[in-house]
Amino acid sequence: MTHHNQPPRPKPARITGVAHVLAATGYSLSGLRRLWRETAFRHIVLALAISAGVFAVVGAGMVEFAILAVMFLLLVAVEALNTAIECIVDHLAPHWAEFARDAKDLGSLATMCLVCANGVFILAVIARSMAAT
């Protein structure tokens, strides 16, 4: 973000090859540090730990653990996009605006859909385990 009294900075030179991979990794880690400041993300991490513990107790297989990991990674990705939307909207509309409310509500809906999908999967694994005993 540039301040109104400062000229915009020039666009950085394009990075390619291995340097690009390293730079992209750094950007992703910066995003992860930013996402950690979100309470919802910390709740997702806690839910993953609890879910993995429950899966261990009910005897879930490796495929179920792998699906759990993929489901939670999808949830993290959507939460990151939701947070990005919120950052942009807060910058563009510091005061209440209908488009800002709608954008935030839609981002929240996307996250909620994946939270529900994770819950359905977790409950299905638990139910299957209970039915097998």
Q: What's the number of domains? A: 1
Query: Treating each run of at least 4 consecutive H or I residues as one helix, how many helices?
Result: 4
CATH topology call? Helix Hairpins
CATH architecture verdict: Orthogonal Bundle
The mean pLDDT is 94
Walk me through this protein's architecture.
The chain has four helices and no strands. The protein is mainly alpha-helical. The longest helix is centred in the last third of the chain and has 35 residues, at 98-132.
Helix and strand topology:
Elements: H1 17-36, H2 39-58, H3 62-92, H4 98-132
Helix pairs in contact: 2-3, 2-4, 3-4
Q: What's a concise summary of this model?
A:
The chain has 4 helices and no strands. With 133 residues, the chain is mainly α.
List keywords for this structure.
133 residues; mainly alpha; Helix Hairpins; 0% strand
